[in-house]
């Protein structure tokens, strides 16, 4: 009884993570080291992890870790080599959603303040490890070497390392990676080491023939920020400690597109304070990478869809840079507080973009973002907790709750707070917030209390009024599903122009409107507003309008993926069959989850046969998390038998 009370006490006042099976409150992981021997041809990894745990309660007998489809060979104490008993506790219907428990029986009772160091030997392969995308050599540009990349967020790290897979726990992360083919270069979250600092945990036959890489990160991170790529990749400096990594064929083109990385870093630091992580490296992945970007420290991942040719897609790079402060330095404690990462990140991203492209352009981004958040809310249901900033992910794979909602409602909340507190003091608030919570994982209530105290201390006679305004909306903003309780001002003539042009096309019923050529001058975010108007009013868009518009703008096979994705949404809604081959081409070349989920949903509704045929064709190209998501969507639209 005392044991239970003592362990729970440390968690009182803070939200727990409902998406981990680990006993992370009783015992916390402090350090994770992995040693992996990669066989990319066989899509197989021979793995050992070594972890240090700190005991937080008076009697600890077991350590429970998260695992997903891992094959565990042995668990033993690092110091003595003594084997510890372990069992896999199957979690029934959660097994394929969130995984199972690796329960380790300790050799004795451990007490508060003691440390335990364990090794776990295990294997991974392409079937179980849903965090890993294994590409065959044929799927790469050079077609000579296979390629591997990971995506651990939300809780997929447990499919590659047995650990406490929760953003509540931050660990020091180090790694040794061994490869058989010397052409394979490896990058993993952390600084590459050249002095072979870590002793090998295993003996390897033909060690001389293997190439070894070691990495170390001296700032603690949560499991979801661990990332790896391995393949024929090279890095190129873009100046001032920034680098681009890609397949050799693309490196010059990508480095050119991202040549302003040092500018973005400088602008971000001018606004929010010093960058503490060392170098900044961004990998442009092969097309099957499922997200726009992923913010692993020192190893940002980005989709090749951000490379448009005119630097118009680089907002993603700015977003990922912003995560170095919000998300990576101060982290949301669980998936319900994901907005603490993303809402703040979008705020910083748009702050910098407004300085580069002007405020009107950023307002268009906010309008587009809100419209995609609203589309997700309609899909979830307007009163579903996933349509709130604080989704209830109990017994769910938190990936299912992923949408623009926390990004945009979080951004809108911060923009509202800035309007109350005023721009310069709010910048100071953000800097103080980072300083106060750096290296911690927090929840919305900690942020809320800090905010109120900050206003009390720094806003003198205005403080009381501002606090009352915040108190009126905060909990509603965070917890109530649907649109934000207060609408922020995003009015801009750019929005009105784009909508008027779209309306003129609909009204023209196939006639080309007077100002039709304005479209070519629009930036992608204004094109997106134009297309969104047509999507929102698709029932009024006649076939002749689609034909003429496609003739005029050549939208099918457009270069910018964000624009063409919206065009294809419209194509599928109005059943403009002439552009269907374009959709086919797109879903076969772009692996971004958010695009594919929407397109397969529309295909399922309107083009059932193509939905199933194209999914079958491309299953091996998509990342495993995307395959799972599309399978779930297609369940809504059972395969129809076509009788010819
Ligand atoms: Zn983000």
TrEMBL record:
Cofactor notes: Binds 1 zinc ion per subunit.
Cited Pfam families: Leuk-A4-hydro_C, Peptidase_M1, Peptidase_M1_N
GO biological process: proteolysis
Keywords: Hydrolase, Metal-binding, Metalloprotease, Protease, Zinc
Cofactors, names only: Zn(2+)
CDD domains: M1_LTA4H
Active site per database record: 320, 407
Domain of life: Eukaryota
GO cellular component, one term: cytosol
Gene Ontology MF term list: metallopeptidase activity; zinc ion binding
Boundaries of every Peptidase M1 leukotriene A4 hydrolase/aminopeptidase C-terminal domain copy: 492-634
SMART domains reported in the protein's UniProt record: Leuk-A4-hydro_C
Ligand binding (Zn(2+)): 319, 323, 342
Family: Belongs to the peptidase M1 family.
The name this protein goes by in its record: Peptidase M1 leukotriene A4 hydrolase/aminopeptidase C-terminal domain-containing protein
Organism: Paramecium octaurelia
Lineage: Eukaryota, Sar, Alveolata, Ciliophora, Intramacronucleata
